[in-house]
RNA sequence: GGAUGGGUGGCUGAGUGGUUGAAAGCAGCGGUCUUGAAAACCGCCGUGUCGCAAGGCACCGGGGGUUCGAAUCCCUCCCCAUCCGCCA
């Protein structure tokens, strides 16, 4: 959520920023309803002040046994009028809130302006000298590798649940678990994150806090008989751990990590990535979340991104780091880096991590504040999140990058301790 | 699912329908004392919003009602705790 005061005081500046995302920006409706709100508020508060004055006076006179009929009379006309105004005020507050809730975050100045993913900027490759497509044989996509090895069963997924569900078996299931353990150990150990196991279901307010609601409800799974949504990412529960709280400056920055399963409707993705593990209704992900002071969030985004990159380096998976342009960024983000892993079986880079700084956008929605030492005033924290990294897609990358001519897959050295020393996955 | 008891400031916890935005304690901030620290003592100390300021207004789980006036009375919803039953 944007600062309402900022929109009011610098309307052109805000409109220009939002305009960088593309599309039309029309804040005139907002300004009109916000002006009306202020008008009603001033009028209401004037009457409220008078009411309080009269009430106090009545109390005082009554205890002094003085006559209060005149005050009673004034109250009888003021009362109903005030009740009306208060209802109007509440309604107008709802209108303004609703308008504000669907305005996206403003991009940072360092975010490149552009229309769509074609305008994203590739910042760096790893390894520096690209070795894409250097496999000495025709590489296969992971669904062929996985089926041949008997570790991915797409048909079983369809049978049990439907399209976009997959069953992992044997070394495949173990590989997934190994990836999770490897990533969590790296982040909690070397990178200093605190591990969290949050609920996988969350209420509407929590989804509002991170920006999934009210605008993107169609992307979420919900429960028929209970007021819960399945989380689309651990960003939702982790970030909301500071919702409605006033933190001490000494507690910042906070670094949290969690492995969770994530659930997405993929409503707008019909027909896209229908084969393989790339786009599933359910997938696992290790998430990284930072809660910082405003002045340190920009640097924190670099650090968080480096932590995600470190996962891929240790897994020996070639990748590139991309800075998303304004038109390709998510609703809550002010700046986003994507990590794209190289998939030789498909001959392309695919997103495996997305790291964003939302600045105070989510904090304002969820009222997450902190206080500096000795200060009276509270400030909104900054929140950041990133995948560190998506487990399903990491598994895809391991299979496609580790495949050999005979159909077996070499397991990255970093994962072997988590695989009981297994070095190669061979067909059963 | 059944039966009780609760939801008040960063935390714990008082609160008779009327100068109560709310006692007290803890935490925090400032000070006295001390070589320093602790202890003790004194003072300050809820959040948000409007305003240049003085100050105004709102907020005691959410919503509605009674009343001239509600943290306090009534209705309703939500949540939490405990006990019983069921269950991984």
Q: Can you tell me about this structure?
A:
With 428 residues, the protein is of the alpha+beta class. Helix content is 39%, strand content 20%. The chain has an eight-stranded mixed sheet. A hairpin with a 6-residue loop joins strand 13 and strand 14. Helix 3 (28-63) packs antiparallel against helix 4. The two termini are 53 Å apart. The model has no long low-confidence stretch (mean pLDDT 90).
Largest sheet: 8 strands, mixed
Assign the structural class, choosing from mainly alpha, mainly beta, alpha/beta, alpha+beta, or little secondary structure.
alpha+beta
Please give the CATH architecture of the largest domain: 2-Layer Sandwich
Low-confidence stretches: none
Number of spatially distinct domains: 2
CATH overall fold name of the largest domain: BirA Bifunctional Protein, domain 2
Key words describing this protein structure:
428 residues; alpha+beta; BirA Bifunctional Protein, domain 2; eight-stranded mixed sheet; three-stranded mixed sheet; 39% helix; elongated; RNA-binding
Note the topology.
Blueprint (H helix, E strand, L loop, with lengths): L3 H6 L1 H9 L8 H36 L5 H33 L19 E6 L15 H8 L2 E2 H7 L6 E2 L2 H18 L5 E2 L5 E3 H7 L17 E3 L4 H6 L5 E3 L5 E10 L18 E11 L4 H18 L4 E5 L11 E9 L4 E10 L3 H6 L2 E3 L6 E3 L1 E9 H12 L6 E2 L13 E2 L3
Parallel strand pairs: 4-8, 7-13
Antiparallel strand pairs: 1-10, 2-3, 5-6, 8-9, 9-15, 10-11, 11-12, 12-15, 13-14, 16-17
Helix pairs in contact: 3-4, 5-12, 7-12
The structure holds one RNA strand of 88 nucleotides.
How would you sum up this structure in a few lines?
By secondary structure, the protein is an alpha+beta fold. The protein has two domains: 28-101; 117-425, Bira Bifunctional Protein, Domain 2 (BirA Bifunctional Protein, domain 2), CATH 3.30.930.
